[in-house]
Amino acid sequence: MKYENEISKRRTFAIISHPDAGKTTLTEKFLLFGGAIQTAGAVKSNKIKKHATSDFMEIERQRGISVATSVMTFEYRGVLINLLDTPGHKDFAEDTYRTLTAVDSVVLVIDGVKGVEEQTRKLMEVCRMRDTPVIVFVNKMDRDGKNRFDLLEEIEKELRIQLHPMTWPINSGKDFKGVYNIDAHSLLLFSPNTKADADGLSINDLKDGLLDEKLGERDAAQLREDVELVEGVHGTLDVSAYLAGQVAPVFFGSAINNFGVKEMLDTFIRIAPSPVARETTLRQVDAQEDKFSGFIFKIHANLDPKHRDRIAFLRVCSGKFERNKYYHHVRLDKDVRFSNPYSFLAREKSVIEDAYSGDVVGLFDTGNFKIGDTLTEGDDFYFTGIPSFSPEIFKEVVNKDPMKTKQLEKGLLQLTDEGVAQLFTQFGGNKKIIGCVGELQFEVIQYRLLHEYGASVTFNAMPFYKACWLTSDQPAKLQDFMRFRQQNIAADKDDQPVYLAQSEWFLNTEISNNPEVQFHFTSEIQR
Ligand code: GDP
User: Fold this and answer.
1) Which residue among 16, 20, 179 has the greatest number of ligand 1 atoms within 8 angstroms of its CB, and so is best to mutate?
2) pLDDT at 410 over 70
3) Mutate to test the pocket of ligand 1, among 25, 49, 138, 254 (most ligand atoms within 8 A of CB)
4) What's the predicted TM-score (pTM) here?
């Protein structure tokens, strides 16, 4: 446990939300508190502007900018916080899902006016799969929002997680007066555009006349009633249930007004987990182990033909990573070292000498890495739990230039290693099918195949909506199923059989008609 001090002061997390809920704004406030930036407006939204959707080069350019903000490291009250950014555009959702494999907890922002939205649901599903601890921030309380009890019920039901209110709002919209901190017994009065949250006013108990004085009798009475109800139902926060991903503490506030943010950040550094142990193919690896290990969770390619470099993002999972030291690349079974690993301090890249468990290191890569690759100090294991998720759009690749078949195959393999898309080969034929979460990636793939590999392709839409990975204890039954459903069966890149479903109805029918075949909604990335 040589590095215990370094590791216990680290918190590695991501802020996630449906687009427009306020992720960028909240990120910026966090950075202001951490002193990593001085002025509001310094964080560039990595949101891709709507008008740019027909011009993916512009989107990639913007994404290029966001590489610098991929990881934002700052210190707050002696705690070292690694905040991993996630793309705002839904077409890049797969990037976000993968980033979630590299964090130890998340802050989920919900728009208090809109409530739970499509992306919120999907992101929460990924968190639930990993039992990731979640803190919820209900944003935009300065706007007329939903009734807060209804909203909490909606979140609990839709996201299937138990909530624990830490603060309680007094009205919303024009009448928003602030929040009451239930644990600390303090009242935080709202004023728009504060530089930073002031400390709350201490309240002896809910009967305290100060509440009437500050809020008026009617709102004070309502608050008393609400809080008694909330306290009666929830009691005190069970931190171990939060750490197990079963209970999510909830804060109310307004990111743009910097209101309620500090309350959350203070709780975050108190309860959020420092780097946690991770599963591998061999055993559980503890963050406190002395020997280094880590895995690649994201690869960013440079589209500029003059700069063909790629950046592989390594999450350190144990021990200490050092510059110029040889590490074992398990999949390739060879030792590699890095002379220019870098870290991300706010928006600046800087070469680093070392990094500890919980940190993210950027490694220049010339094609040695694919997502899920493990680096160790000699050990032979892979980190698990870095799956592929089902794509949502499927298209057949049509080769327009048979002379370039080899280049096309190489290009498809490399791009899918980077995680740009998933590649499937239709069973009993050799139709190549690409699956993505957004239309944009098809444009990116077409462009990159042509410019980087000289291969010209078009796409044919395929009528599928979901891919499910198949297993069975009875190989003969699985073979039968695959033979009868040939049109819907493909192999993924690692030759695992996959069922491509036309619709939810077809999928459910197959699941109930074939109890001996298991349908999985994700795949561990195999090597
Ligand atoms: P993201 O897409 O989740 O990153 O959302 P942004 O942080 O870019 O915010 C989306 C929009 O909501 C922007 O116009 C913000 O100014 C606005 N916004 C963010 N927080 C608040 C808030 O607390 N109140 C109000 N009224 N607007 C907010």
Assistant:
1) 20
2) yes
3) 25
4) 0.89
